[in-house]
Design brief:
Length: about 300
């Protein structure tokens, strides 16, 4: 299996089908970013992915992530097949979000479905093989090939599942040391794409304050908290969010300083880093920050 390639740097953001989101996607494409990783929470539905692909020409999209508890496998497979038929290679399926008592088993079952979801995707008359078997109308399995799907993996068991069943892993809120460990588990032939928080602000106090607002949310989520503990952070760190923790998990400063920080992931074994720009305010997409960072990253 050839691992997918998205260049060294892309964008993590939440987009919808609104005119403002479609414009932001076109701006990212015009700036030269090769890929947008679509945050799962803000995504209103699978149709948005198709809308974004149709609104742009070359930029690639990865669902980062689609919750397997929310989106049925047959719907994801149908969306992938429709985009692949029109514009091959523009959509990679990123999965995660399994909850309940057996999350790993739930993901494995979901991947089993994506290995071959029954559907009617053959042209009229069926394939040559179907016709030779005298079954021109027999439905063929329709799924998402392993080389076009990824897992939002954090822990070692999830990373191993990503290596066994997908093209690679897409972790978020991790250090460069974690990246090196993840690469060792995945092996060299799997994609390792890291999403990293970015604050385009040279003032240390203001930058760290913006980062802390975001980090305080994620430290309260069990999955992220568990992985942060695996990386050596403590409950005291969660309570105070000290400078050393903020600086390890959020790149801030001038565009060149941010680029230097993000290159640590590439040096540790990541193939790609998706910048998750945070500004401390809700509202429009951070297109000005994408523009400021582009010369340093692309």
């Amino acid at each position: 299996m050839n691992k997918p390639s998205f260049g060294s740097f892309g964008i993590t953001t939440g987009l919808t089908s609104s005119p403002e989101s479609l414009d932001a996607a076109r701006i990212a494409e015009d700036l030269g970013y090769p890929a947008i990783w679509l945050s799962g929470g803000p995504l209103p539905g699978l149709q948005t992915i198709r809308d974004l692909v149709e609104a742009t020409n070359t930029i690639r999209y990865v669902s980062g992530i689609l919750s397997v508890d929310t989106y049925p496998a047959e719907d994801v497979a149908a969306t992938y097949a429709a985009i692949e038929a029109q514009t091959p290679g523009r959509f990679t399926v990123g999965l995660g979000g399994a909850h309940g008592p057996r999350p790993l088993a739930a993901l494995e079952e979901y991947l089993d479905q994506l290995d071959g979801v029954p559907g009617e995707q053959q042209p009229p008359g069926g394939s040559d093989e179907q016709q030779s078997l005298g079954r021109p109308d027999a439905p063929q399995p329709v799924g998402v090939p392993a080389q076009h799907r990824l897992l939002a993996a954090l822990g070692p068991r999830m990373l191993k599942l990503a290596a066994e069943r997908t093209a690679g892993a897409y972790p978020f809120l991790v250090t460069a040391d974690y990246t090196a460990e993840a690469r060792a588990i995945l092996g060299d032939d799997k994609l390792l794409a890291v999403s990293h928080l970015v604050v385009v602000e040279p003032d240390a106090s203001r930058a760290r304050g913006i980062a802390r607002d975001t980090l305080s949310f994620f430290t309260g989520l069990p999955g992220y908290a568990a992985n942060l503990r695996r990386m050596g952070f403590t409950d005291d760190d969660f309570a105070t969010l000290p400078d050393h923790m903020v600086d390890a998990l959020a790149a801030w400063g001038t565009p060149n300083q941010i680029a230097d920080s993000l290159h640590k992931h590439l040096a540790a074994g990541a193939d790609h880093v998706a910048i998750n720009v945070i500004t401390g305010v809700t509202g429009p997409q951070p297109t000005d920050q994408w523009r400021a960072l582009a010369p340093a990253l692309l």
